[in-house]
Specification:
The protein is of the alpha+beta class and 130 residues long. It contains three helices and nine strands; from the N terminus they run E-H-E-E-E-H-E-H-E-E-E-E. The protein has helices at 14-24, 62-67, 85-94, and strands spanning 6-11, 28-34, 40-45, 53-58, 76-81, 98-99, 104-106, 109-115, 121-127. Keywords: Dioxygenase, Oxidoreductase. Pfam families: Glyoxalase. One of its GO terms (molecular function) is dioxygenase activity.
Length: 130
Amino acid sequence: MPHLGLVTVVVRDYDEAIAHYRDALGFELREDTPRGDGSRWVVVAPPGSRETALLLARATTEDQRARVGDQTGGRVGWFLTTDDFDRDHARMTAAGVTFLEPPRREPYGTVAVFSDLYGNRWDLIQPADA
């Protein structure tokens, strides 16, 4: 059965992106392989994630650099699901993650929008049934 394996996030620099996703968001570095042409195959994922991960791809053209931090036109583009909103919100806040709004309760769960290192918008969400 097919599944979504990787989603690309265009980044300015591999090492600063790895540090942010690992240290601030708590992701695991799954792979960091040089490709021989100066690029690297860098994969990060939330701990325990079995299917979808992020491929951190360094911008190499002016068009790509212009999209770093605004890959979805200002909309929330990624949804980080948790089983304990309060724990993860507190950990991320302590690690310097910028939340753009206070947590709110919605019929579908508890949610707050945050931005990554580059300004891409994410939801931290605990589904109502979790």
